[in-house]
Every structure is written in structure tokens, then in C-alpha cells.
User: Fold these one by one.
Assistant:
Number 1:
Amino acid sequence: MARRGLLVVLLWLCAGGLPAQDLGNIQIHGFATQGFLFSSNNNYLTMQSTRGSLQWTEGAISVTDPLTDNLRFGIQVHMYQMGQLGGPNVLVDWASGDYKLNDRLGFRAGKIKITMGLYNDSQDVDSLFLWILLPQCMYGDDNRDFDLALEGGEVYGGVDLETRGRVLYHGYVGENRLDANGGYELQLAGYGLSFPTPPSGKIFGGDVRWQTPWRGFTVGASAQSQALDGSGPQGTLHMAPALMLAYYAEWTRGKLHLAGEYWRSPLVPVLTIGSVAIPVPADQRAWYSMASYRLTKKLQAGGYYSHYVNKAADTSLPANYSKDWVASARYDFNEYFYGKVEGHFLHGNGLGDYAVANPNGLKPNSNMLAARIGFSF
Amino acid sequence: MRAKVKTRAFLVGLVVVLACAAAGAQDVIIVTYKGTWDSQITASQLREIFTGVRSRFADGTRAVPVVLKGGPVHEVFLRKHVGEGPNEFRAHWRKAVFTGQGSMLKEFASEGALLDYVSVTPGAIGYVSRVNDPESVRVVTVSP
């Protein structure tokens, strides 16, 4: 019901031809999207995609109030329904106070987005991207509430290197918890574990990126430490602090955009069921390379290849790798309304393919057609 | 008949070429609040102000960048001084808004409205195709 209400408000704002609302200094923005997946073999991201699924709806509204030149408050509420994930609950996407002392130093506190790699903090804002699905090896659509935000604080800023460009940095610390309706909880349920309170843990990390003197060319690196603990009637989950590293580069020149990233995440979650402790080691290594070109003012096209492998397991098994060739196009009908279409050629089922959504077993390969329309204001 | 078609095609082609040349040649005038200390800004400072990386002018006063909602002047400004197209520029600011890292720039439907705002708002900086009343705002030059 809440989901329907949110969508009605968003559609009313868009259908009325209203631009983003600026009530004095208060700004109100929002978006709503509807997706469609059709896959040849496996049901993807818990949707019944082999039959063609429209079970993918998202929406958000943000309110921002710049109280002074240096101080700003804001909140964004978000809902998503993706197959068995998400649901009608409206979640707080972020809610923060932001004090910017100057361009070199600022502070943000509350529930804040996590800067990790090129797109982690913005991956749930569909209107920003050509792609319907960002490379799932890093930006999985099935665990976004956990991966994207923390409750805590961060420092951020930039240093002007004059003729050598500019360095931007973020450093953050806090705590985050699994989404009760997210993919990790669904996977844990597959082991027979349930948690009255979603597992949570300390998280800290940082990101440094260099905007080089070569216009449009950025390189950077991120590091993050994440711990996780939870207990339920059937057992416990414990993950000692695990260090995740990311390296990336991005180049925009006129209508051309190129980007690539490499992430490594070695971690050992331990599940204890009764008196039996089961370590589930993973050494996740992922990279992608993407290119896109704006053909006309309204039409953009591109492709990427994303590669994931779990080096801690038998890499010859499809469950331990995922390789995805993607071709995509986007058409902007106007500044508010757009449509996208995308083809995926998936090899391996290590990402996005849930056993619970594929009771007859998983095939090693699957092709997929995705489409999505969205409003943003 | 055939010659007529050829002539018409030639004329249409000529008009398109001339229109493209005119659009390419079009420049924009950068304007700031008349009380702004400096009448010159570097290309990188201008780009950084409009991409949100820099929030102050070289003299330390707060910059308030404002933009046109669309149109050829907006596109020429973005292409020449920001290095982005209108879609990329919009996405850039939407990212700031939807990640809690910024607010959308103030937009104006006409150059007149933008000039009126710049003329009375300390720190405001924008762009237009021409300035009818040079006393109301400061025209700044962009140095490399």
C-alpha cells in the first residue's frame, strides 16, 4: 500500500509536468522505475524471469534543505520490489546532516551513502546510467540496502593540485546491517538460518580519487573493512573484519565514456548451526570494462564485459564464476522520462541466480533481455 | 525536374551547413553579481564551480552557479566550459542530489530571468548570449 502511494505521488508530480519542487530553499526530487526481465534459462535476481517478469519496481523521494551556506540537511526514502527481494516497506535510503567547512574539509553524519569504487553510492539511481543492470560483480542489485549505506559519519573534501588536477577523498566509519528482505538474508535462509534482528557489523573505509589534468580522466582507489555478526534460533553468523579493495579509472571525452574497475574481497563468514561451525571462505575477484557513446541528444548506446570468480572455491564450477557480456541502449524522451533496453549473455551462475527461485536447478549459461522505463525529476 | 530537385537539395544542404557553423561559432558571456571582486576567472575554476567541486571564487566569496533550463546557449556553455552534454550535466547533479551530497543548481527558463537573479544575488554566476544592461551585472572573461 505504501509502495502504491509512493508511486502515485511520483506519477502525479511527473504527469503534472512539474519540475523538481523548490519551496524556497527546500528541494524535493524523486524517481520511479519499472523493469522487465526475460531470461532463457535461469530465473535471475529471484524474479520469474524465464516466464518474463515485471516484478521490478523502484521509487524514491528526497528532500533537501540547505539551512546555511555551509550546513545542509536531507533525507531520501526509497522502496524496491524485485522478485522475492524488497517489498512494500519504505526504507530510509539516506538521512544526514552535512557541514562543509570549505572545499577541503566537510563532515557528514547520519545514514550516509558509502563511497566505494566508481558507482557504489549512486548505483540505485537508475536515471544516472545507460545500463539497466550495472556490473553485478560489484554492484549487485540484490543487496543494495546493506552495501550502499551505513549509520555513522564521514569526512570528505578535495585538494587543489593546480596544474596537476585535484584529489578528492572520503573517509567513513559506522555500522550497517543486512536488509531483512535482501539477498544475503535469503541466502542465509538457504542454510536454515533466520535472524529476528538482521546481522550487523562495524564498517570503516575510504576512497581517494585523482581528477587528473587530462580533462575527463579520473583514477582512484577505495578500501573498506566490514565485520558482521548475528544470531538466531537456529545458529549464528560471524564474519571477522574483512578488507575489500577497489581500483578504478574513468574517462569521458565528448560523447564517449570509458570505465573499468578491479575489486578484491577475501572474506570468511562462519555459520554455526547447533554446535557445528561451517566456514564459508570466499576470495571474490571481479573486474569490468565498459564503453558507451552518445549517438544523438536522446540516444545512447554501449556495452560492457563483467567478470567474477571466487578463487577460494573450485573455479571450474559455474556456481563460482559469472561472466557477462552486455549490450545496452537508452532513449531519453525528455528530461524527465527515459526508456532502456539491454541484452545479457551470462556464463556461470555465481551471481544473481538463487536456488530458491530455481527449484529445478541452475543451468550454467543463460541469455537475458531487460527493459526499463523511468521518471526522474 | 531533376535539376530542380538537385537545386533544392543543394539549398537545404547549404542551410544546414550554415546553421551548424553558426551554432558552432556561438559563444556565451559569463556574468556574475556586479559586486564580485574579480572580472576574470580561469577555465578550470569555472568548470569546477559548475560541477560542484569548488564552492568559492578565488577571493574566497561564495559562488552561486545558476543555469538555463535548456536551449542552444546552455548547450554551448556546457560543451565549451564544462566539457559535458546536457544529459551528462543533469546526471552529474542528479547524482549529487540522490546520494545526499548536494543540491540541484537553480535553473531559469529565460536569459532575462537569469540576469535578474544574478544582478541581485551576491556570488551568483551564470551565462547568457548577450547583456543589454552592462551596469546590472559584471561580465567576466575566462582565461586558460
Number 2:
Amino acid sequence: MTEKIRRILKDHGRLNKDALALEETADLYQAGMTSHASVNVMLALEGEFAIEFPDHMLKRSVFESIEAMRGAIEELTKST
Amino acid sequence: MAIGIDLVMVSRVQASLARFGERFLRRVFTDAEIAYATSVPELGAERLAARFAAKEATIKALGLADRGVGWREIEVAREQSGKCRLILHGAARAAADGAGVSELSVSLSHEGDYSAAVVLAVRPEPQHVQETTQA
């Protein structure tokens, strides 16, 4: 799952660092991800993992690191 | 009082529309916003970019980044005069009410490939610890 998240970040995150080599806990907003880029990342994650982020999960903290996104995706795939 | 600002590249909004289409539109914008933005096709992307900026500027002004607010809960409405105003729904409304926000004002701007928005929120100042330091 982590590799898929990294690939999506590389394609949509507009990071100023290599998404494939980033620490899992690195702050993606500090790495240049804008709010608009985070929407694209979210939509790509939804497509990749066949999930939908409910409004209450649309938080900065959910998308701030690879680790945080993985946790959110695991939570969503568990409940479906 | 609090302000928020955001700047969005129109071409990136166009890219999101090309890549994600209706999913991007319906996730971020209300029906009324989409209807207004797409009423003039050549201005659609810049109008959407400005509205996206307004939503982000509102999130900043009201400190909503970690409140779990959907983008459609922050809506830009356009009055007959051309002046825009913000309408909050759901969790965004509840957060603004909870913070005692009495007025919200938004201003949009476009220049070439950029759209920007500034939002001003009038609210009581958070209680600060009384300063006891003497000069």
C-alpha cells in the first residue's frame, strides 16, 4: 500500500522532494504539497483503493504524511 | 478578527478537471457554484480556481484545517451586484458559530494564470492570559 501511496504522491502531490524516497513520517505540506494538490492526491487515493473519504476525515492531519494516509486508508478499507 | 488568504493556479484546476472531471467538481463545489462557473465556459476554470482559493482562505481564517470540513460546506455565492459572499453549511457553520463569528467577508481576484481570495472573519478575540510583565 505504501508504494501505491508514494506513486500517487509523485504523480499528484507536487512535492519538492522525491516521493519515492521520502520518510513515511515526513510532513508533506512542508515538502511543498498545496491544498489543491492534496485534493488531487485524495481523489487519486480514492480511485486506487476504491474508497471515499467522508467529510469528517478531510483534515490536514489525515493527509500530512504517508503514514497518516496509510492509517486512514486502512480504516476505510476495514469498514467496507 | 482573523484573515485568511489563498492563491491557486488556474491551469492546475484545469488539470484536475481534465484528470478527475465530475469527481473533482462535485467533491469541491456546490451545484450553484458549478452552475455559475460553467455558465461562461471560457471563464469556468478561473472562476472555480477563485472559489477554491476562497474555500481555503476561509479554512485559514476560521482555523478549520483539522475540523473535518468538506469543501462544499463553504460556498461562495454571487449577488446580483457582482459582490461575492460566503455561505457556510454543516460543520463549517457549526465551527464559525462556536467561535462567535459575526461577519465573514470575501474578496476574489484574477490575474492571468492565478486566482486569489482573501477572507476576513469578525469574531471576538480568543481570551489571552493577562500579561503581568512590566516595562
